[in-house]
Input
Amino acid sequence: MVAERAARVDYAGEGLSEDACPPAPLEIVRAWVASAIERQSAERDVPEPTALSVATVDADGVPDVRTVLMRDLDTRGPAFYTNTGSAKGQQVAANPAMAAALTWPSMYRAVRFRGTAELLPPEDVLAYFRSRPWGSRVGAHASAQSRPVPDRETVETAYREFAERYPDTGSADDVPVPEDWGGYRLVADRVELWAGRRSRLHDRIVWERVGPGGLDDPAAWRRLRLAP
Ligand SMILES: Cc1cc2nc3c(=O)[nH]c(=O)nc-3n(C[C@H](O)[C@H](O)[C@H](O)COP(=O)(O)O)c2cc1C
Output
């Protein structure tokens, strides 16, 4: 099997002690994301520091997973933008359960979130859409994400048509937001930080929700260590 050819790596990360963990997880999650972003330009061994694997389940309870870019992380959880008619959008409409993971193998670190998806408000969607390059804004119109297309040419023709309809004027509002374009926030009920260490004796610290409150509210969380 091809996977057997991958070299076995003994993870030599810094680990994670209880002392380094605040009573609520937001501060340390943000610090880990900031370190990964720093490494993108310093060591250059984290090419996409905000790549977020997002898991959903469909109406039959069958799981699905794909990678998106985390565009925000606030006191409720991570957020990303996508097409709401996509497979993930339809799955979330049927069942809002969502899990997500940020994984930085070169840093021997990962963060896991579990919770429920909420649609982002239209004002956030508009502000983010307008911040994207013109080509990406046009591309959003040309792609009914996750739905079958006969061939690549169909997508490229649609792109050319929308590019003509919404020419680049240099202004952020030259392309309207497509109706089926939006975003989701995973409102977290559980957050785990994983730090890889030697002999597979990794550190795992979990924050479990025990009451209402944000990821920065100590009263909302119970912290525990899990066996690796
Ligand atoms: C590194 C990376 C970043 C991506 N970022 C996004 C994103 O921010 N939004 C998005 O809709 N798809 C993104 N994609 C594509 C998704 O992985 C996926 O193909 C798409 O969202 C359709 O997923 P679905 O059919 O499960 O809905 C990204 C893929 C990769 C590999």
About this structure: The helical segments are 26-41, 87-94, 122-131, 134-142, 152-165.
